[in-house]
């Protein structure tokens, strides 16, 4: 049943610090429980930059790409529905949760907290391209989704680019914001960071009925897009408000009685942002720390403020199938409110290094690789 | 109706850094809504030491004492019941919430979060002895409880010393632990600090069904009392485990799979304890930061751990009538399990300076002034 | 300072079953802590109909009207700010929480659950017009707001009719839906009842990010308005779907996999609606029972479904200052999304009986009395 | 490696209404991922009586027994640890979650709510004895645990009878009470029903710090055991308080101010208990409906009380691996407090029909089959 194409092009990271190379890998038919997907679009994420820089230990060579959308090419035996029970057929547009939990550790079996799984497999991150089934990353013409992957059919009204525009930032925020920080109608929300996670946070905060949304970030180009998309009520440019105190004052100024924000969301990845976020929150407020994905070391924090203000500081790590399902289910609402494609800059697979370098330069928001371009 | 005693002895802090002096103040009859109480016992709290050291701005002179138990001497017009609706009469043993919220700020009127009130009056702390009704602290023969004070009759089975043994640490933990950190049956709980707050935390954690309780603190005398009272399963002496890493290892060692504690409670007041507590918690765990009552400045914290572990870091500040009611209601259960009087060292009012100095020396756990001694 | 007008016209219910009569009452200047307000608009609520029918015991005669908006005429001594701390002056447009909790019962003092207060005073309901200060209902030219009333300045962008359009249904839903049932982005919400409570529920559910909203109610005129306002995605006319089974099927049909709604909201007041609502909810769903305000007796319910489906059935009663503050704060967002005035039919005070009879006929949604008309 | 024993004795239900028969089935070696266990003890549960009566459709013949403890006889390839990661070996005493979720339905994949799984396999209930591996019920000398079963090593300090004494009532209450109803220190808890579920509820409520526990049930023998074990502070005998009103009054009488219980737990299975439980709860209270496991039809309930009292009525159904893990982890605490073996009456496998008939008679609390007797 498998077509004649026997090799697949993929973008592979072979050495840390080096460029990504386009290689070819043998195509395999779908074993029972697996699904083979032709990739339409795959996002480039800040974590990919960190991988290239060698900040996370991964088994090289690795086909990068942990966020993608594609077309079902072949369903292995026993797969006839997606993870919500909807019928699945070749030709369907699909997305999938990027990780497969081990299903055996304490967090999986006893707590059902899959984002805390001690041994999960993650597409595009910790699956070596040298190990069968090789095609375990999204920056490729094709990806082999192993049994246990939670797949979801793309809602009919969404284009492929809309689906990939927020990348993993979308489900990360669904987990952190909707799943853990519980936004409430009318709240004043301050978001630190104007990258994809910050943008996704602002969009979902709006969807959840936030009364006022302040986005603190940069550079100006990104804030301009944020403004055009209508994701925030006030954008504070960190290149103009260069001092923490100035940002804190400006953010508090829009809160009732200057008491501070009901909810602050950290989406910068910079340790120093945390003390600043604590200062922006009101007494009794909540602080979602979702951006400290990689370890950048210690920072100075005054814990008295946590006690005195009765803050709730909430960490949230990545996401699991549960959050991805919710993300796919709510994405049409996001797309109704915001022009998601406006975030995307598209590149053919061969221009992957250009795309990564543009991302490093901060001149674009969301680079996307489209193997069919 | 008022008796002939027209002056009342009280222990007054007149200058920061100075000794406490025994002075006399005129007794006033109870105005409508007020209650005059003869003090039986009044606790000395770490905050009193801070006040003497001038670490909190207060209006001097001030009759100290924010934790006390007494006998109703006179009820003002309109007062015939305590805050739970139980009938109140002269001669009843009573306790009271130490603060009166303003009832007008945003936190009071709109949020009903009275511990966050912006202008609350606190007995023994921010009520000058020079301002009517003068008798606004517990270190005195008598205290004048103003209208709006939440009074509670002492449950019949409790002695006065049992009531005052935990001092304000009791309701502070009822607020923080029961009200905010929600302990669960079977959890592994690590408590940092063996003072009254740590002791109260351990007792209430036990009451709430904790499976294993580790108390990290010192000096050895305190841990010996903790052990005798049965408040913990393991006591880690910080004078023997002098390095943070050693304490972290020892605490994790008793947790299943060395994954860390389900719940860590900070009750030290030392900023440096916070990074250590974060390291002691398991992925998905909770960290109650209740001990950072006064501002001791910044400390180094790695916020990546908050994200990576999905920690919930919960601040809790003081308490309000709601928590005090729950404290009084549950105190008989605490007293059934633990010999509370074992914590107390009693002093006559005149020996207040000796009591404070013994407390500074750490040789006793809970000094209590008994004006009738 | 008080003007020359010494009598005030008001609509008084004197006997149950009888018509409401226009009477006059003496005006009183504002005592300390009180506020005198000239009424602009006062809503007529289903509860007023119940009061006229004698279904709730109230002290007659009573000036009805528990929902209103007005202009501050006079501030008593000590009142210079509203309940959020904003400055208050004569001439300001204001609204107020309709009840004053006793501040002495267990629910007030110990639990801070003011909607459960055992002895609260409610404007327009349990305050006799014969007892000073007489003017204790909103269906009048003027109302005397006693000390302890939580007042709120009307946000500048709102007209008086917008403020009164949802009446007490608005804060009732803020309490029940936002405060207790915690709606989540993307949920399928079924609302039983198309009166003001159902309309308010739909509006706030939309604001909170509901993915699909089904409104089950009638008559057709109301559903037409609901449709024009855009409050729901699907309106099920109970005059067309006359059998419960048909309504249950139709509601489930729009839920994914026909599993049922994530959240069902009962806003009918009919006991029989409850079994139907339970059938409409999915396994693991929530059911907010907010409409059973008056006692209409028993109904048949199968409790096995509560266990089997793991339902959470949540009762919610009226509201307190906390919810009213949140209502006023979020009303501008509601008004941005929905044309609130479309709900209102305005009458002069003298046509109160006509207004009540139109309401009984169901030909209008929200009758409002405007004393200045 | 498999021993010579090639057939296994088991108690099989062949026809509804009929007696259970002892049959023999072929033993199979453990396939990869499976575990073969020699049964030590297996509980008889009320559900088994319902199955015999034909109240639940099951595939006959079926080896009954969904609660058991045993010794590992053989581990299939790939199984070297239990569900908490502890090493597992032949000879270990083990228990296991009685159901295996399908892992493919919406509740499994998207919501991780495994007790709501639409197609779960349950040992001793919906696995036919005619289908391989045949040995799928606990009333047998041996059971074959299929891949996907969550096994747990029995804590060393527990005897087999202690482990089986509460049967499935234990994890059912861990799910309902600890997982959903969140008991709090000091609460007044009323429990309806003195069977295993009611007993387990009382024990766990005590462990969680309940201040006062009232057990409403019968017959007198059971209440006598409850009293001897110390599971409640007050036992209300329904044979002496035969009218609901009398029971409601008696239960409310022990609550502060007769306001009603903070938490009521329904553990009777009788629909009529629900209206009674609602009446026993205080305003703002919670009502856990965990006993309506099988469908006994409609009952009269007044939903006005749900609204007026702001009740939270919480359904809870069975349990999943998550709850079972917590049950096993906390069982040593339960056993420390209560003499669990006191609940048990032991029978050899051959006397299964006698055991069932004794259970129907209500003369014993927990019949247990011990195949090795």
Automatic annotation (TrEMBL), chains A, B, C, D:
PROSITE patterns given in the database record: ADH_ZINC
Cofactor: Zn(2+)
Keyword match tRNA processing: no
Chain ranges of the Enoyl reductase (ER) domain: 17-369
Gene Ontology molecular functions: oxidoreductase activity; zinc ion binding
InterPro entries: ADH-like_C (IPR013149), ADH-like_N (IPR013154), ADH_Zn_CS (IPR002328), ER (IPR020843), GroES-like_sf (IPR011032), NAD(P)-bd_dom_sf (IPR036291), Zn_alcohol_dh (IPR050129)
Leader peptide range in chain numbering: none
This protein's record includes keyword Zinc: yes
Keyword vocabulary terms for this entry: Metal-binding, Oxidoreductase, Zinc
Homology family: Belongs to the zinc-containing alcohol dehydrogenase family.
Entry protein name: Alcohol dehydrogenase
Organism in which the protein naturally occurs: Mycolicibacterium agri
């Amino acid at each position: 049943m498998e077509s004649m194409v026997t090799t697949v092009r993929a973008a592979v990271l072979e050495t840390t610090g080096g460029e990504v190379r386009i290689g070819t890998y043998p195509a395999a038919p779908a074993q029972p429980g697996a699904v083979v997907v032709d990739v339409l679009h795959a996002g480039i994420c800040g974590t990919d930059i960190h991988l290239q820089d060698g900040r996370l230990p991964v088994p090289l060579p690795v086909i990068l790409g942990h966020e993608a959308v594609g077309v079902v090419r072949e369903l292995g035996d026993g797969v006839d529905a997606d993870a919500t029970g909807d019928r699945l057929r070749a030709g369907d547009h699909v997305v999938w949760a990027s990780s497969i939990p081990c299903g055996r550790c304490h967090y999986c079996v006893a707590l059902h907290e899959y984002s805390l799984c001690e041994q999960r497999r993650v597409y595009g991150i910790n699956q070596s391209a040298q190990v069968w089934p090789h095609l375990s990353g999204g920056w490729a013409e094709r990806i082999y989704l192993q049994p246990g992957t939670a797949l979801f059919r793309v809602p009919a009204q969404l284009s492929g680019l809309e689906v990939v525009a927020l990348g993993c930032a979308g489900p990360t925020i669904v987990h952190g914001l909707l799943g853990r920080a519980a936004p409430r109608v009318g709240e004043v929300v301050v978001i630190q960071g104007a990258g994809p996670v910050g943008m996704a946070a602002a969009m979902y905060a709006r969807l959840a009925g936030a009364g006022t949304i302040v986005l603190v970030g940069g550079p100006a180009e990104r804030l301009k897009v944020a403004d055009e998309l209508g994701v925030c009520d006030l954008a504070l440019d960190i290149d103009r408000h260069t001092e923490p105190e100035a940002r804190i004052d400006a953010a508090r100024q829009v809160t009732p009685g200057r008491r501070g924000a009901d909810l602050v969301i950290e989406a910068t990845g910079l340790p120093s942002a945390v003390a600043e976020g604590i200062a922006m929150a009101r007494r009794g407020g909540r602080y979602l720390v979702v951006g400290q994905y990689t370890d950048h070391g210690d920072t100075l924090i005054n814990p008295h403020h946590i006690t005195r203000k009765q803050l709730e500081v909430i960490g949230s790590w990545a996401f699991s199938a549960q959050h991805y399902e919710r993300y796919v289910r709510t994405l049409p609402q996001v797309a109704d409110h915001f022009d998601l494609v406006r975030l995307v800059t598209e590149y053919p697979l061969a221009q992957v290094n250009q795309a990564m370098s543009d991302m490093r330069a901060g001149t674009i928001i969301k680079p996307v690789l489209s193997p069919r371009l």
